[in-house]
Amino acid sequence: MGKLILLLLNLIVLYNIVAAVFEDQVGKFDWRQQYVGKVRFSHFDTHMQSSKKVLLATESNVFAAINTRTGDLFWRHVDKTGPEGNIDAVLHHGQDAVLVVGNGRVLRSWDISVGGLNWEIVLDSGSFRSACLVGQQGTVKHAAVLKKSVISLHYLSNGHQKWVENLPESETVNYQAVHSDGNGQVYALGVVSHSHIAVVAYSAEDGEIIKQVSVEAPWLSNIPASCAVVGQGMLTCVDSTTMSIYTLDLYQQLQMIQIPLQSLGLEVDPGFQPHLVSHQPHPARQPLSEFLLQLGPDHHLLLQLNNGQIVILRDFKPALLVSFATTGEKTVAAVMSPKNKTACGINLFSAESGRRLLDTTLIFTVDPNAGKPERLHVQAFLKKDDSVGYRVMVQSEDHALTFIQQPGRVMWTREEALSDVVTMEMVDLPLTGTQAELEGEFGKKAAIQDGLMSMVLKRLSSQLIMLQTWVAHLWKLFYDARKPRSQVKNDVSIENLSRDEFNLQKMMVMVTSSGKLFGIDSKTGSILWKHYLDNIPSNAAFNLMVQRTTAHFPHPPQCTLLIKDKDSGLAALHVFNPIFGRKSQVAPPALSQPILQSLLLPLMDQDYAKVLLLVDDQYKVSAFPSTKNVLQQLQETAASIFFYLVDSSQGRLSGYRLRTDLSTEQVWEVVIPVEVQNIVSVKGKRPNEHVHSQGRVMGDRSVLYKYLNPSLLAVVTESTDLHQERSFIGILLIDGVTGRIIHEAVQRKARGPVHVVHSENWVVYEYWSTKSRRNEFSVIELYEGMELYNSTVFSSLDRPHAPQVLQQSYIFPSSISTMEATLTEKGITSRHLLIGLPSGGILSLPKMFLDPRRPEIVSEQSREENLIPYAPELIIRTEWFINYNQTVSRVRGIYTAPSGLESTCLVVAYGLDIYQTRVYPSKQFDVLKDDYDYMLISSVLFALFFATMISKRLAEVKLLNRAWR
Amino acid sequence: MASPGGQGGAGALSTRGGSGVRRMKWTLELSLGNTRSRDRQSGQGDVVYPIGYSEKPVPDTSIQETDKNLVEKRCWDVALGPLKQIPMNLFIMYMSGNTISIFPIMMVCMMAWRPIQALMSMSATFKLLESSSQQWLQGLVYLIGNLLGAALAIYKCQSMGLLPTHSSDWLAFIEPPQRMEIMGGGMVL
Fold first, then answer.
1. Closest residue of chain B to A539, computed from CA coordinates
2. What family is this protein classified in (chain B) (predicted)?
């Protein structure tokens, strides 16, 4: 009976928090964008003339097919992250694409028309070197895979191994390439560095070694970098030290023939590693005897190897990029050469003759806010008159793909940099022009300058403008209402951007690891601006801060990005306007010292920009902006400015205090021995977080006050010993000002990765329990007790009583990728945890399930408090997935921002994909529902109004009649 | 809801008091116009009443000893009215329970409002009790009864949890404390 009551109670409690999206709300306030990452291999589907697919294999371990007309995904397969899912090679033939994945661990074949898996086999161990298709008599039936010590041949139809052979002398010879040109032989090419080249020819039939030769080549160390097979089995190499081209006939293997570049009248640019590109149009046929040679950053040559003689067909200078493409029997070379600063021209040249083809010029406009073009992927096709037409996909440094058609029409652009967002912020949009006008009208400066009369005139004119815009708005509403809903386009451009009445539309400023910044409209997901910062080191750390919001018209909003090179420690600041993406006129200070951390103070200078403090490696502080006003403010408040630094390599947490001369003194230090455990993460509270309720109401209606220390830090440590019996994780709650350890918890037999959320008076963390082999959540809540020590101010320096600590743990049925808490304007709405799952779902878990006060035995008081009885398992309810079926692959982070509505929190999940939505943790208590029946309500109101009018009149008549009687 | 007895008593008293001014033993109507007007009023045509005839029955106004007692009794009825309601109220309170829903709230509102209303119109009640010899005692009893009723209502509010007597009721008004120190930082980048 008791259990039944419990169940009933649970049902009642749960009933209230069920919130899911209705079918007609799908896509109304959420959007998803899917990306693939930086392209490593690309193949145009050429087996059908009308095909519009391009296959992309990327460095994010994604294999996808993209529609060349629209740039949308046909299908996409996301493999494991890291080296395990790394795509080593893509062999494309007809309907099949064969992928070597995970350093030669797996061989997979995909059907490219639908993206289905044909077959998958696990290969023998050994690190992968090369792979190629093997054809015989014009048909391609096999694929050869070369590993460190083994070569194997597989059927393309089912992946079965035809034969596998050990490579001779694999201990000394470093086999690097495999080649086949349809003559029934497979060549494995190896090199003994700076000594000789080894060529082993296998019979494609049975794997028998037909020939095995080694040829002197003391200059050679890397075959794929400097060699290519050209024409009739001629291995052609280029060497920069001897300034020569070497050729070797693989069929006869007599010896290397050296052709000095000088004899051809060529010269390598100093310091440039020359590069050879050959082209094999069909795997069952020989490669072309023409090849491309790159001698400098913008110097390419089309050469022909003719009976051992090299003929220069064409010299391309300047030429940024060249690429071969084949259609039918024709092979062309596409050459991109710079025209002027903002445009490049692409031309086609016949590969056989080097002649320029007529009417093949294509203009590629280089976006000044994008990176330089890096690679050229050419799709050639035969036109009706048998001439060659083409389209190009240009891959640029910022990972963007641009697909261009003649004569330069951009068909689509994919910003693949967005597949690797590092950090982001959401910035309020500016007010509309009229609103800004009003603001400006009553600004400080205006009032001083103008007299009374002109102020009146101004007011009248601004009112007139407002009336005008209102009428225009009404007209637009009326006009749009007549059109079907699907046709109503809401064009978003920077010009017509303005804040909506509930501040639900914001500007998402995203920083990607490639160094490209994006400004994205949160309502539609369209990219409004982009800015590419070149020379960003690959391992840079980014820190994005909003120094001035849009609230201070006419001062423009201002964001500052701190970019730190982790190797040199040097940092740079990029100051920009987050709404337009333009670089600000404010000159950032030059930072000569390595920067350790930055700190955004709530202090403002006279232009309402928040002060940014930068701590250098001498523990000296510099301020930006550093005007006199700011320095004076800093001197006044220096005594109350503290900062902490965590050096995880030394296991050192230290707190510092600012002195008035902007030097610092160390106040406290906590050392965690790195031999035992290391610091994984440190989480403070978000500075824009508001907590409305200072306590919790108990069942007896007394108050348990929360311990809301704004400078509390949650430090997570993991043990260095990973043995499952001895591993542990630790949680340390430290006051960042005084260094006082408020609480310490150790979870034995537990292992990371630990995900932490720290907010209000609670810390939630998730870990892997090695003892029970499951994921567990743990929650710590801090309370001050039944009385507040000091209700007006909170000072960490004056806290004599330690807080009460409550903790409880739960079992979670899934591992998680990331975790974040919802955030609302005033903090009245209850909190939810947003959990990104590896499955791609984003779960909105009510915080009330993670409450250490959940009782094991239900009492009258706990029922009064609405506490759910403790149950160790947390369940995942499908209606808690805020992204229904819009899977977000590889969620790396979730960003939450408050909106103007207290009930609504804006959520952006980013990873490989980007997903934006809104969540309502306590439902939409401040908004009428979407399906609110305005018609019914207003008609009832009007009906009642008229009924009263009529009945009043009737009553009057009746009274009059009675008086006459 | 006043008891029927109390109300009836008040009505009777007022009638007697009000007609006291025009009290006459007998009356002679000589003017013709006046008769006519009366005729027209009564709508009885040309019938002339004999002298001394009054259409209304003349009330018997001789004061009797039993009347005096009746007044006393009536006045006590008025004074004890609120007290008499208390058991009834207690029963209703018990029946309605402590849950917060529309009917108990209406109940409580009624219970609280009636004594307050009665206390506000205290002077009118005193006027009613004027004729009684124990006016002050009765007034006191009446006051006490109403106060008890109000107390009962407050007790009901308290048991329903409607009174802001706990610290939790003032929780929403506590401002977040101002922070004294500014702190920031993080992992060394």
1. B189
2. Belongs to the EMC4 family.
Per-residue pLDDT of chain B (189 residues; tens, 9 = 90+): 434 444 444 343 444 444 445 667 777 766 655 544 444 444 455 567 788 787 777 776 665 666 778 888 888 888 888 888 889 888 988 888 888 888 888 888 888 898 888 888 888 888 877 777 777 888 888 889 889 988 988 888 888 888 888 888 888 888 888 888 888 888 887
Q: Do B178 and A737 touch (CB under 8 A)?
A: no
Q: What amino acid is encoded at B181 in this protein?
A: E
Question: What is the per-residue pLDDT across A652-669, written as a single tens digit (0 to 9) for each?
Answer: 999 999 988 888 999 999
Task: Sheet with A652-658: list strands edge to edge.
Answer: A664-671, A652-658, A641-647, B182-187
Nearest partner of A678 among A654, A646, A644, judged by Cα: A646
**CA of B130, closest CA in chain A: separation in Å?**
40
Rounded-to-10 torsion of CA A656, A657, A660, A662: 20
The token pair that represents A111 in the structure block: 């059907």
Hey, is A493 helix, strand or coil?
A: coil
Q: What does the mean pLDDT of chain A come to?
A: 87
Taking CA–CA distances from B172, the nearest residue in chain A reads A693
User: What distance in Å separates residue B175's CA from the closest CA in chain A?
Assistant: 7
Q: Minimal CA–CA distance to A919: which of A930, A932, A935, A903?
A: A903
CB < 8 Å from B in window 590-609 of A: 595-603
Residue B58 makes CB contacts below 8 A (sequence gap 6+) with: B26
Q: How far is CA A609 from CA A389, A559, A617, A623, A700, in A?
A: 55, 10, 25, 12, 47
Is residue A647 within 8 A of residue B188, CB to CB? The reply is yes
The answer to whether the Cβ–Cβ distance between A794 and B183 falls below 8 Å is no
Q: Which segments of A126-196 does DSSP mark as H helices, in order? A: none
Residue A873 phi/psi, 5° resolution?
-90, 135
B-facing residues of A in 786-845 (CB < 8 A) are 788, 790-797
The label of the residue with tokens 């010029």 reads A361
On the question of a cis peptide bond just before residue A554, with omega within 30 degrees of 0, the verdict is yes
Q: Rounded to an integer, what distance in angstroms lies between the CA atom of residue B141 and that of residue A417?
A: 87
Q: Do residue A790 and residue B188 have CB atoms under 8 angstroms apart?
A: no
Tracing tokens 């250490």 back to the chain, one arrives at A852
Structure-token match 């891959």, residue found: A395
Cα separation of the two ends of chain A: 73
Residue among A284, A292, A410, A289 at smallest CA distance from A343? A410
Amino acid at A630: V
**Residue B99 to chain A, least CA–CA distance (Å):** 12
Predicted local confidence at residue A368, as pLDDT: 83
Tell how far CA A555 is from the center of its chain: 31
**Which residues sit opposite A145 in a β-bridge?**
A131, A152
pLDDT at B25: 76
What's the gap in Å between the CA of B98 and the closest CA on chain A? 13
3-state secondary structure string across chain B: CCCHHHHHHHHHHHHHHHHCCCCCCCCCCCCHHHHHHHHHHHCCCCCCCCCCCCCCCCCCCCCCHHHHHHHHHHHHHHHHHHHHHHHHHHHHHHHHCCCCCHHHHHHHHHHHHHHHHHHHCHHHHHHHHHHCCCHHHHHHHHHHHHHHHHHHHHHHHHHHCCCCCCHHHHHHHCCCCEECCEEEEEECC
CA dihedral in degrees (A948, A954, A959, A960; nearest 10)? 130
Q: How many CB pairs under 8 A join A and B?
A: 121
CB B168 to CB A695 under 8 A? yes
Asked whether the beta carbons of A293 and A303 are under 8 A apart, the reply is yes
Task: Kindly identify which residue of chain B lies nearest to residue A787, measuring between CA atoms.
Answer: B167
Q: Is A370 on the interface with B (CB under 8 A)?
A: no
Helix (H) or strand (E) holding A459: helix A452-482
DSSP A442: T
**pTM exceeds 0.90 for this model:** no
